[in-house]
């Protein structure tokens, strides 16, 4: 394993300990709502703090973009920046539904070089370094080999924020449910991407995502032989909000279905990586 990944794994496991401990007594959990249906807990914050501590101790010259603390830690002008989702799937976590993960990626001038997605309830560790492949607990990952969307199991995320375009999503939902074997909405985008990399799904799509939801998972997918892009198939997925990830054959078919729903360029308001 690349030495940088070792540090990211250590950070992810520290966060995993915090999350697992808290999951044993969810009644004690203090929850607040960032905006309608968008929750944060003290566990999200503690997890982010633990991750940043490990990363900046090893790499004090790096920058950080964290979901909960933004760019307030690390060096603002650094060429290397860690992109952190300390708990992806907070709504599941609050309800005791064990589908959540820690996501940590390192970008160099905005290009993801390393990624870790860690599912602490299953102890599944997904890692990737650019050019060196993707792994689940040290076993090499490959995307699925299915070639027809008609045979595909597809992951997605439903809209849930006020202001989301529910009608457009319902059209996409109808098209996909009529065309593929099944649609799934587990509720943690970073894990969804890890599952595409592992061939558990044949493809995944969602709108309204943020860089920390997809930074690590996108590298897992490409390093496992898959493709990631926006609804037009272009690589503007990190800051653009909309994302398709799939094996190459299914990817092309998903782009054909989703292209009509692509955002006009310049619509997205995601933080810059
Ligand atoms: C959310 C999850 C969810 C996705 C949302 C994300 P959070 O992240 O990834 O699956 O549908 O768009 O915001 O808030 O639990 O870290
Ligand atoms: Ca997230
Ligand atoms: Ca989160």
Oligomer: single chain
Instruction: Please tell me how large the radius of gyration is.
Output: 17 Å
Q: What best-fitting shape do the alpha-carbon axes yield?
A: globular
What is the average of the pLDDT values? 94
**Residue share in helices?**
25-40%
- Please give the CATH class of the largest domain: Alpha Beta
- Beta strand count: 14
Structural write-up:
There is one protein chain. By secondary structure, this protein is α+β, with helices and mostly antiparallel strands. The longest helix is centred in the first third of the chain and has 21 residues, at 3-23. The mean pLDDT is 94. It folds into 2 domains: 3-140, Fructose-1,6-Bisphosphatase, Chain A, domain 1; 149-264, D-Maltodextrin-Binding Protein, domain 2, CATH 3.40.190.80. Helix 1 (3-23) runs antiparallel to helix 2 (42-58) and helix 5 runs parallel beside helix 6. The strands form 3 sheets. Strands 3-4-5-6-7-8-9 form a 7-stranded mixed beta sheet, sandwiched between helices. A 5-stranded mixed beta sheet has the order 11-10-12-14-13, with helices on both faces. Strands 1-2 form a two-stranded antiparallel ribbon. It contains 7 helices and 14 strands. The two termini are 25 Å apart. It is 33% helix and 25% strand. The structure holds D-MYO-inositol-1-phosphate (IPD) and calcium ion (2 copies). One calcium ion is lined by residues 85, 88, 189, 213.
């Amino acid at each position: 394993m690349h030495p940088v990944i070792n540090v990211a794994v250590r950070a992810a496991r520290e966060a995993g300990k915090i999350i697992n401990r808290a999951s044993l007594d969810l009644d004690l959990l203090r929850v607040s709502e960032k905006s309608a249906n968008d929750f944060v807990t003290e566990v999200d914050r503690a997890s982010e703090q633990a991750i940043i501590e490990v990363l900046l101790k090893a790499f004090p010259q790096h920058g950080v973009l964290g979901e909960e603390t933004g760019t307030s830690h690390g060096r603002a002008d650094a060429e290397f920046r860690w992109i952190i989702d300390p708990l992806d799937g907070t709504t599941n976590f609050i309800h005791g539904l064990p589908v959540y993960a820690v996501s940590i990626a390192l970008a160099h001038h905005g290009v993801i070089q390393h990624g870790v997605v860690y599912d602490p309830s299953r102890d599944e560790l997904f890692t990737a370094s650019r050019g060196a492949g993707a792994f689940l607990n040290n076993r090499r990952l490959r995307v699925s080999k299915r070639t027809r969307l008609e045979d595909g199991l597809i992951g997605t995320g439903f809209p849930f924020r006020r202001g989301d375009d529910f009608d457009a999503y319902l059209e996409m939902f109808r098209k996909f449910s009529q065309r593929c074997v099944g649609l799934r909405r587990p509720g943690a985008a970073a894990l969804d991407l890890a599952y595409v990399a592992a061939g558990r799904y044949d493809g995944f799509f969602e709108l309204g995502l943020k860089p920390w939801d997809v930074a690590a998972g996108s590298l897992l997918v490409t390093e496992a032989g898959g493709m990631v892009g926006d609804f037009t198939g272009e690589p503007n997925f990190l800051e653009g909000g909309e994302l398709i990830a799939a094996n190459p054959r299914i990817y092309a078919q998903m782009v054909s279905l989703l292209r009509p729903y692509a955002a006009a360029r310049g619509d997205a308001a995601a933080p810059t990586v």
